[in-house]
């Protein structure tokens, strides 16, 4: 799965990157799928259907709740969200509604043969795959729910700070650093170490993403 292979080579050096870049440093990736049709300024035939489709999109918070409920139904103790990583399949965009494809990493809170799972899903509400792994993910802190800021709001803060994008990859992550903040990271590099982060809590600090970090390194096996 691209999420694992991409991010495994991008949080060992995360604390150094965060200190150098104001608390930033992470990566993001997701499996690409079909892009959404662009909506023009005119109102062509079928525009009402497209508008309905956009309205029917889940928020990231709603999709996260659905994914966690489905994972818990199969693996009752796999409940700790570590990462939500999104991609705009059509390429870099300033419209975060086009970041439709998401992958989630969820850790097991108990001992067992499953340490963590990766879940592929989209904002239409389709959960298309769950992949299990023997080890838990480490190198980042668990994400405390509920998600109170969506990618569109986060992008607006980054754009207002002078970095309007466009961006293809978006990640929600809490770096393992001193004084950690839950952040959105915006990048055009898969497993990216380039772009900008924004804190979801006050103050909404915007910082460059530090380079050379490895996000999602598995925890060492427990004896």
TrEMBL record:
Region (Disordered): 199-223
Domain of life per record: Bacteria
Entry keywords, A to Z: Signal
Signal peptide positions (record): 1-20
Protein name: Uncharacterized protein
Species name: Kitasatospora kazusensis
């Amino acid at each position: 799965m691209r999420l694992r292979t991409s991010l495994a080579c991008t949080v060992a050096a995360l604390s150094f990157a965060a200190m150098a870049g104001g608390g930033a440093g992470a990566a993001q990736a997701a499996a690409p799928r079909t892009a959404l049709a662009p909506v023009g300024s005119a109102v062509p035939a079928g525009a009402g259907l497209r508008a309905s489709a956009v309205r029917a999109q889940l928020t990231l918070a709603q999709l996260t709740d659905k994914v966690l409920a489905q994972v818990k139904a199969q693996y009752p103790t796999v409940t700790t969200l570590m990462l939500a990583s999104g991609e705009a399949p059509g390429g870099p965009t300033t419209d975060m509604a086009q970041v439709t494809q998401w992958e989630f990493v969820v850790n097991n809170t108990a001992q067992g043969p499953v340490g963590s799972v990766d879940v592929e899903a989209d904002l239409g509400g389709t959960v298309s795959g769950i992949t299990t792994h023997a080890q838990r993910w480490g190198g980042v802190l668990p994400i405390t729910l509920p998600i109170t800021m969506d990618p569109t709001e986060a992008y607006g803060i980054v754009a207002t700070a002078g970095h309007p994008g466009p961006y293809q990859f978006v990640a929600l992550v809490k770096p393992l650093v001193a004084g950690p903040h839950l952040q959105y990271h915006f990048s055009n590099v898969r497993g990216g170490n380039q772009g900008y982060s924004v804190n979801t809590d006050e103050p909404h600090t915007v910082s460059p993403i530090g380079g050379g970090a490895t996000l999602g390194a598995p925890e060492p096996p427990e004896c």
